[in-house]
Structure formats: structure tokens, C-alpha cells
Design brief:
By secondary structure, this protein is mostly helical. The chain has 15 helices and no strands. Helix 2 crosses helix 7. The longest helix has 25 residues.
Length: 267
């Protein structure tokens, strides 16, 4: 693997691409609703998402009862002390950024922080809800910087629903790929509870629901871009033997969430 590939792989292990995808998702909705989003709000979202994902991975690495099986958990376990220090510094920067945000965004962020903390503390006890809850929090986080006036129109509601479905589909797909590794190292997921066969059926159902919304929502290019992410996930699922090698599914699956940036350039 050449150095650009190695660099992106490191960004993926560190969840930097996920944080970037969240920022692009926020700008995507801002573009759809015609609402400007400030640089401070986007910066705060990037850091906050990175903190949540990194803390989740660090907690998994800390709880491991044996050697890490996945490359991500091994990396976080090997660099545990360094990453904890970076997390603390990033948390301080995040707080300083939050202070400069509009009061509405601060209130939305504070409300969201409560379920996030509860998720990190208790998700192992309700593993079957891991992916649906994580998808809901991710979607809510993406919408925090966008000061949408509620109620939104039907097309907006359906676009938000479509985004949730594609995020849930992605998380279930990742857990589906990792089920053997999760079982081996004692980490939890909903797939371990309901099994790979039922999870596969749910992934197809989510794709069909996503397709139905894309056709009927009237959200145009924005709905098509979200459907493209869902289609990419289906390709990963169908050709899982190819994409399971060296965790290619994870790199590509996370990169798919960079696609909505096209809406900004095209519009």
C-alpha cells in the first residue's frame, strides 16, 4: 500500500474520516434547507464526533479481555495513553469552541450530550440497541449546527429519515462484517444478538426503504446522493468476500459518507 493509502487508512482507524463525514452531512442539510452554518459550529461538530468515536474505541480497548482482533482496537490499545491525552486536549478545545456558538446550538448540543454519555456507559447492557441508538445520535449530532425552523416540510422530514436509515444500514453492515471478531474479543453489537442472517435481511429492508423514500420524497439530488450511499453499502454486502479483506469494507463504507459534498458543489 502506497503512502496516500496508508495515510487514509490511519485516518480511518482514528475516525477522522467519520468526523469529516459528519461535517459534510451537516453542510449537506444546511444546503438543502438553505441555512448558513458557521465555521465554529462545524469545527465543534468535527471535534465532538471524533471525541465520541475515539472514546468508544478506547473504552472497547480498555474492556478487552484478550488480545485485540481488529486493527482499530489494537491501535487504540497500543496507543491508549497517547490517545487519552489527545482526547483531553481536544475536549478542552471543544469546550472553548462551544462557548462561541449561538445559544440555540449550545442547548441542542447539551441535550444531545446526555444520551451520548448514557450510551457510552451502558451500551454493553443493551447491545441489541447499539446500532439504532448510535445512528440516532449521529443523525442528531449532524443536525445540531443546522438551525432548522420546525416543523419542516415533508421533503425535509423524509430526507432526515432517509439519512437515519442509511446511517443505520452502515452501522449494521460494519457489525455484520465484524461479528466473528466482536465475538472473539468480547465486544458487543446488535448483530451478535439477532444473528447474521436476520441482520442481512434488515440491511436489504433498509435499502428498499431508502429507495422508496428517494423515489417519493421530492428531495431531488439530495435524496439521490443518500441513496448512492445506501447502494454502496449494498455493493459491500453482496461482494463481502472481496471487501472483508484487510477491512476494505470499513474504509470504503466510511468514505461513502463524503459523497454528500457533491450537493454543495452542484447546487
Amino acid at each position: 500500500m502506497k503512502w496516500p493509502g496508508k495515510l487514509y487508512r490511519l485516518a480511518n482507524i482514528l475516525s477522522i474520516d467519520v468526523a469529516a463525514g459528519a461535517a459534510i452531512g451537516s453542510l449537506f442539510f444546511a444546503d438543502f434547507f438553505g441555512i448558513p452554518v458557521g465555521l465554529n459550529a462545524i469545527s465543534c461538530l468535527i471535534i465532538s464526533v471524533w471525541l465520541i468515536y475515539t472514546c468508544d474505541h478506547l473504552l472497547d480497548a480498555y474492556r478487552l479481555q484478550s488480545d485485540a482482533v481488529t486493527e482499530r482496537h489494537a491501535f487504540h490499545r497500543r496507543n491508549f495513553s497517547i490517545l487519552v491525552t489527545v482526547v483531553l486536549v481536544a475536549a478542552v478545545i471543544d469546550v472553548l469552541l462551544v462557548i462561541s456558538l449561538p445559544h440555540l446550538i449550545i442547548r441542542k448540543g447539551l441535550w444531545l450530550s446526555v444520551p451520548v454519555i448514557l450510551y457510552l456507559m451502558f451500551i454493553n447492557r443493551i447491545a441489541i440497541l447499539k446500532e439504532p441508538v448510535a445512528a440516532a445520535m449521529y443523525c442528531a449530532g449532524v443536525l445540531v449546527p443546522v438551525e432548522i425552523g420546525y416543523p419542516v416540510n415533508l421533503a425535509g422530514e423524509l430526507l432526515i429519515a432517509q439519512f437515519y436509515l442509511v446511517v443505520l444500514m452502515n452501522l449494521l453492515l460494519f457489525s455484520w462484517f465484524d461479528v466473528s471478531k466482536d465475538r472473539a474479543q468480547g465486544t458487543h453489537s446488535g448483530v451478535l444478538v439477532i444473528g447474521k442472517r436476520w441482520t442481512g435481511a434488515i440491511i436489504w429492508l433498509l435499502f428498499l426503504l431508502n429507495s422508496a423514500i428517494m423515489i417519493t420524497s421530492g428531495a431531488g439530488l439530495h435524496a439521490v446522493l443518500l441513496w448512492s450511499i445506501a447502494s454502496g453499502n449494498i455493493v459491500l454486502y453482496v461482494f463481502h468476500r472481496t471487501f472483508s479483506v484487510a477491512d476494505k469494507f470499513r474504509v470504503i463504507g466510511d468514505a461513502l459518507f463524503l459523497l454528500p459534498v457533491l450537493s454543495i458543489f452542484i447546487s
